[in-house]
Amino acid sequence: xxxxxxxxxxxxxxLLEVDHPNAEAARRAIAPFAELERAPxxxxxxxxxxxxxxxxxxxxxxxxxxxDALMTHSRYAVPNALLVDVADTMDRYGRxxxxxxxxxxxxxxxxxxxxxxxxxxxxxxxxxKKIKPxxxxxxxxxxVVVHPSERGTLKQELLKIGWPAEDLxxxxxxxxxxxxxxxxGWHLRPYQQHxxxxxxxxxxxxxxxxxxxGKTLVGAGAMAAAKATTLILVTNTVSARQWKDxxxxxxTLTEDEIGEYSGARKEIRPVTIATYQVLTTKRKGAxxxxxxxxxxxxxxxxxDEVHLLPAPIFRMTADLQARRRLGLTxxxxxxxxxxxxxxxxxxxxxxxxxxxxxxxxxxIAPADCVEVRVSLPDGQRMAYAVSEPEERYRLASCSxxxxxxxxxxxxxxxxxxxxxxxxxxxxxxxxxxxxxxxVITGETxxxxxxxxxDAFRTGxxxxxxxxxxxxxxxxxxxxxxxxxxxxxxxxxxxxxxxLGRVLRPKGDGRTAHFYTIVSRDTVDADFAAHxxxxxxxxxxxxxxxxxxxx
Amino acid sequence: MATPSRSLADDIRGRSDAELIDLVLARPDLARPAxxxxxxxxxxxxxxxxxxxxxxxxxxGHLQVLEAVVVAGDAAGLDDLxxxxxxxxxxxxxxxxxxxxxxxxxxxGADGHHVVRTVPEVLGTxxxxxxxxMRELRPSSQxxxxxxxxIRATLAEAPEDSRAMVERMTWGPAFGVLxxxxxxxxxxxxxxxxxxxxxxxxxxxxxxxxxxLVLREGRLHRSVELTPPAIEARTVSLVDAAAGGAASECLTxxxxxxxxxxxxPPRVLRxxxxxxxxxRVTQQxxxxxxxxxxxxxxxxxxxGLVADDGEVVPVWAPTSEIDEWTSSEAGHRWATLxxxxxxxxxxxxxxxxxxxxxxxxxxxxPDVQWPAIRAIRREVLxxxxxxxxxxxxxxxxxxxxxAWRRPNRAAAVLDEAVEAVLRESEWLGVTGxxxxxxAGRALVAPFAPLSDAPPVRGVRxxxxxxxxxxxxxxxxxxxxxxxxGADTTSNEQGATTPxxxxxxxxxxxxxxxxxxxxxxxxxxxxxxxAPGPLVGGLGSFMxxxxxxxxxxxxxxxxxxxxxxxxxxxxxxxxxxxxxxxxRSSRTPVPQPLEYLVSDVARKHGQTRIGGAAAYIRSDDEAxxxxxxxxxxxxxxxxxxxxxxVLVSSADPRVLVDLLxxxxxxxxxxxxxxxxxxAETPRRRAGTRRRGPGPMVSPVDRPYTQTxxxxxxxxxxxxxxxxAEDETRPGPRIQAMDPVVxxxxxxxxxxxxxxxxxxxxxxHGATSRHLIHPQKVxxxxxxxxxESGHEKSFSVHRITGATTEG
Lengths: 550, 805
Description:
The structure holds two protein chains of two kinds. Chain A is α/β, with parallel strands linked by helices. In chain A, 38% of the residues lie in helices and 21% in strands. Chain A has 21 helices and 25 strands. In chain A, helix 3 packs antiparallel against helix 4 and helix 15 runs antiparallel to helix 16. The longest helix of chain A has 15 residues. Chain A is globular, with a radius of gyration of 25 Å. Chain B is α+β, with helices and mostly antiparallel strands. Chain B folds into six domains: 122 residues, Winged helix-like DNA-binding domain superfamily/Winged helix DNA-binding domain (Arc Repressor Mutant, subunit A), CATH 1.10.10.10; 82 residues; 229 residues, no CATH class; 83 residues, no CATH class; 48 residues; 76 residues, SH3 type barrels. Helices cover 47% and strands 11% of the residues of chain B. Chain B has 33 helices and 23 strands. In chain B, the strands form eight sheets. In chain B, strands 22-21-20-19-23 form a five-stranded antiparallel sheet. A four-stranded antiparallel sheet of chain B has the order 12-13-15-14. A three-stranded antiparallel sheet of chain B has the order 3-5-4, with no helix packed on it. Classes of the chains: A alpha/beta, B alpha+beta. Chains A and B meet through strand 2, helix 21 and strand 25 of A and helix 14 and helix 29 of B.
């Protein structure tokens, strides 16, 4: 029995004692194959999943390394069944490969072939009724032709039945376009450079970085590496503008080279930024803007916020398998559980760094998370008790008992850039009125939004009240206080986004504050508990205080 | 040997004391009940039941040689056997034949080896896939038809298709159905006409043994395996650590099972056993797969830790023994489990399996009882113990080895059972990473020789050592160990008490169990990690105060409002709770946990519920004050709930009477809404009576020695009586053991000679008859008497028999 920092559990989780002297070495050893699930202050929980193991295989690790890492760092004997399972699972990756084969006689010159080293495996998958139609002529015992258009779907289906294919078919270079990073007065941070390198060597895949860690720059770095026309898919128009601004600032690209393809404008240029929404718009039952994907010979496709990628985009992505794809996200956790599709269609995880590590390196602000509990007045408690279940959340989270607390907090942090975030418009307007602040909701025009953001950025206004439109991809570098007054039923993703709002590095190294105001003894508090758990799992200790004690 | 024997009885009478001891040790059933003399010992050794038992215990090597002796016919010489077996390994065959002789399946005559008459019966007609001899199949056949040279010549000139047809039957089955179609019939007809096939019915034919042997080129078996197949093994490290981890986890599972069933015991099905639904609930509680759950449940039952409580509505509840078990030291707890497992005749892997015509077998139910599993368990462990420490056997080769040891068992069933035993050993920690752990070795040590009843160990080991040169050294050493083991165990059987064994096993495991920890690490996400098994008190506190989220080397607990409430319900106060957590935690207790505890405590007990049988209400508070103060009313145990309300647990009528006696004027308000305070006591079933196990005094050397001495004495007396008898004229028939009588009669049938029998009639008078028995069957003997009439004699009336002349 050695005294390692790692404890391997029978449910395939790994517990890492962070304060152990060898914790860092152990973390480095297990990071390639285990997903960090929870990172509270003392013991981090990693989980071994088939996806994680295949990710590791894709990154060139083998089962022996995995087993060795577990045995070396484990405090107790590792259950044999788990070791066997690891070896078996990893062995499944790479039994099937997708390759491109030269074919001098045909017009296309090449064909796509699914090849195996193990005949029974090929027989098994070809017997599968969803896979059979995706393949063509059988070449020999060990290979079968694949329709190039089915490359993505095939990978998706193979993963579903547990035989992930290694995609060695390579990528088209796309239309070349000169792009360089303009590193004057700034440089890619080391982890950003690692992320770019990891992606480029892997060919395609996902980079996981916390909010505020500069994902846009990783995208820019990847473009500079590809030096080809690029299609960037983002969640909304504001985010599109920010990408554009950032690219102009950080790269040799000029305004004329970057096009915006959104509801308002339809420009197709060497670098085109499109929103998911415009791509998924249907007219007469058909996707109206599918042509965009073939409008140019794209050399690189960038997906911002992969965890929000809508299902139709997955389907379209299945047809883009010959192009390099870069996914950017803060978390691989998808609330719809489609992690496997991300893996098979965009690619394996190529880079990952826990928030705390990046925070420790000073790139994101430390945060002080506080849950403030208010008691409902007796009248409201009664109303809450007799209300219909579907009404309860709204009733509890919109309690006016929260208003004085918001005011008090705003006063405490007067002068600091403060965001008040909420779900219900009535409540937001009421708060805005009491604080004398502006409101940004879905109804606010893009132009007005941009104006308010600019004013906020320059410090002209210090308080903004925003609805959930602000959840994604806005960039408010100097917000150091966030007050959350209502949310969508404890979504973990939302919590990550909101926390991200205040985690951008502060000029003066101030601590960021993140307040959540909840009504005691209601569903509001239950949902809050969920989100708090997520925060704690991300390593952010939080406090619970009563409103009276503020 | 002084004089050549003429029969098995003769052979046995001629054996030395040591040889007799070997025989009885090899076939213990001969000693129970103790036979009167050597003749009846010999007769018993020839009975079908005993021979069957002896043959079932043979491994494939011994069985193959025995088959060869049978096929070689009477007076088989060693060369015949070597030829039939197609081997030139004279020493091995010789040793095996000696083994067979020692266990009296074969006896030595002047001309060679003979099998005991019942052996061919037990082996059946189709020995090694061969058909019956020509003469048996067709009594009318000519002797030259069975002549190998004739057969060889006929085969040589056989048409192509006819030859192909018999060749298909070469390695059995030696029976065939005649083809319906014409070409096939013609092919077969040629074979029938040339006496290569023999018709047995209108459309069935048989391949006579002689033809089969020619086709097999004189060899009896397709492959001869006189020595055990080697077990492939790979060396693994950290065996004991892995076993310790598994053992620790196994103990945790039982703790959780006991906690769950103690609080909420599942029903006992009418047919016995645990319902599928309850098993699934338990499975969720333990968070294991179904088979593992069944194993844990059956293990608890085998160790007597849970039992049917025998109430009117019976439930499976932890027994009173569990409290003692829980409080003992971890190594001991494990030893108790492991020993119970080894001795159990229950096969958890059968749970959920459908037996014929019935539903799936229920855990703890009667269908899971399968006595054979005990022997298989011991054999598997014994094979594991025969490997070097730290060797994990390849499962396929281990199954092969066990199949070799027990060729009579159905291969599929055996393989499945072996896999199950290996799996269970791993769960229990008897093995770690596939290799036998130190504790497992201690566990199996005393059992190894016992399960090893079949004929003489030493010789077989020599054979294995001789043949298997690469493993030679190991095999020799193995034998030495085993022999020592055998000797010491038989001598010290009485001395190795179960307690001593438990001690040894416990000590072997204790060293490798993860040492218990006395602290936890509490984190802001309201989880607590116990980085090892927790010491008793803290362990039960954590099980009460938090939910288990993940198990293994460590345990992850999560504090939830429900779990905190559970602890408060059990009598913990918020302060004690926080204090205990703070004391046990190596890390500062996060503020949210303290907040959670105080928040739950704040609400805990906001409303209170109790039981009362009667209430007293009055608008005049002073009256109630008087009642409370009254000494005479003290037995009513009045309590004040509000200024105007008192309650009592006395019946309202009693209350009214007593108050009237004391000068009050109460009015009975009528009864409604009495609440019964239900307290759920922890149930415990009475201990299942488990004696020290069946009292079996072993058939060991001292016992056998006494037995043989007795036999010798009886033999001497019998000789003396015979001598006396000879002086009187006429055959004198003395009362004999029926087994001896029967064997005499069978011999007479086979050798076609007459016997004198004593026969008692309906009045109890015994008369003598000279008969020629023809058939012994169904308790009757058919025979022709002196007058030549065929008659039938009841065997139970025959007092004795003696051969004519």
